[in-house]
Amino acid sequence: MCLVASFLLFFRIIAEFIEISHGETSRNVCRYVRAFKSVVHSLVVTCIYLVLWIRQRRFYETPALEYLSTPFVRSMSFFVVIIMAVTNICNIGLYLITRAYTNLTRGCVVEWSSISKLTPGLVLFVSTLTFQLVLLGLLIYPLFHHLKACSGPSNEIPYIKRVTVAAMVAVITDITCGAVTVFALKNTYGSMRQVVYDIDMLILLIAICMSFENWRHRLLP
C-alpha cells in the first residue's frame, strides 16, 4: 500500500509540473490535470489509511489480544473503513462535479463552483484528521491494555511512542496545511495550494513508514 501510494504521489507531482508549465495557456490542461490530481489524491490517502486500518485489524487477531476485540471495537473498525471509502468518493465528486477550471495568467483557477470554494478542502482535511484519530485510537487501545496486563518492562513501549509521535506529526501537518491552503493561499496561484497538498501527502506517507519498527528499510529499501 505504501509503495502504491508512493508511485501515485510521484505521478501527481509530475502532473504539477505539467500544470505549472501549461496552466496559463491551456484550459484543457487545467480541466484534465486537476481532475487527474483529485482522483490520485484520494487514492493516495486511501492507500495510506488502509495501511493503518489493516495493521490495527491484525493486532486484534493475535491470540494475546483477541479478548480486546469487543463488539464496540469491531463496529468502529468496520464503520471507519466504510466511512473512509464514502468520504473519499465524495471528495472526488466535490472536486469534479461542483466546479470547473480555467486558465489565467496566474495558472489554473476555479472558473465556477456550485458550492463554496472552501468546502472541498475543508471536507478533505476534516475527514483525514478524523481517520487519523480513530485509527490511532484503535491501534493504541490494545497495546495499552496489553501493557497493563503484563508485569515488568515491555517491548511495546517504544513502539507505542513511535506510533503516537508519527500520528501526531501527521495530524499537525494536516492542520497546518489545511490552514495554509484555506487562509494564506486563498487568492494566490492555484498551483501553490496543490503543492501544499503534495507536501501534506508526502509527510503523511513518511510518518506512516516511520511508525513501523523497520522504518529505515521501508523508507530506503
TrEMBL record:
Superkingdom of origin: Eukaryota
Protein name stated in the entry: G-protein coupled receptors family 1 profile domain-containing protein
Transmembrane segments: 39-55, 76-97, 122-144, 165-185
Signal sequence annotation: 1-23
Record key words, sorted: Membrane, Signal, Transmembrane, Transmembrane helix
Coiled-coil ranges from the UniProt annotation: none
Lineage, highest ranks first: Eukaryota, Metazoa, Chordata, Tunicata, Ascidiacea
